[in-house]
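Entry:
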Amino acid sequence: MYSLIQIRVYEQNEIILHEGDELDGIYFQVEGRTKVSSSVGTGKSLLLRFCSPLSLFGDIEYVQEVVVQSQVEAVQQTSLLFIPKQKIESDLMDNHSFKDLLLKHLSYKLLTCTSASRTNLLGAVEERLASYLLTIQLQRESFN
C-alpha cells in the first residue's frame, strides 16, 4: 500500500533530491526557495535555476522513467507537497487535469532551457553577465 500525499519541510541547505537517486514521487514546491544544479564528470556543478512556488520536481524523471537528473537543494526553509509514484500511477495518470499540469511544467522547462542555452551559446560575455545580474536583482526584489 502506498502512503498518502504529504507535506515535507526541508531546512536551509538540505538536499531534497539527489542526482542519480531513484525517484520516489513528484514534488510541488509550495513555500520557500530552492536551487537546482547538475554535476559533470569533472566534479564541478552547474547551477541550472532557482525555483519558487509553484515549481515541480520529478516530472521529467517520472515521464522518462529515469533516475533523478539534477540535485535540488533548499536555499531557505522550503515546503513541498509530495505525491508518491504509486499514488500517481494508481490515481492520477488517468486524470486529464494532472496530465495537463505535467505538460505545462515540462514545456516551461523546455522553453526556459532553450532560452538559457541560446543566451549562453550565442550571447556575448557582457550580455550573459548583464542577464545574470538582472536575474539576481529580480530575485532579491521578489523576496523583499
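The two ends are 43 Å apart (CA to CA).
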